[in-house]
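Q: My labmate handed me this sequence with no annotations at all. I'd like to see what the chain might look like in three dimensions before we decide whether it's worth expressing. Could you predict it?
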Amino acid sequence: MGGPSYAGANLLGQMGSRLLPLSLALGMVLADATGLHHVAFYLALLAIIGGAAAAFDAVSRYLEGTGGLVRAATTGLALALLVLGSAVRESAAVGGHVPAVSISAAIAAMLLYASPLLGWFLAPLAPKPAARPVRVPLL
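A: Here is what I predict for the chain of 139 residues:
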């Protein structure tokens, strides 16, 4: 029925590309929390690259007709938030505190990347269409 190249075995298509920028943004926030601001800066730059790849992938799938508008919009908005947070971080004074806008933008981007989980959690609560009774013809 299929080997490792079989479309059903391709986990990348099911997983998507949101995991990379999500994990890098999480690493950035954790690095900032532990005081490793230099590492957090580079993680923010890497998160932008991963976020751009995720946004390009989502928008291209939407334009092909195989992806959804919500996925394209959330990845694009998350990329904009990561860029905003990185720009604010870079313009901060050296040796000063990390701007709260940078951390807030990273957390908001993480929430946008994790937004499909909300749909996954709420899917069992969605009302199911009622089954229509089947009419059996009488002879």
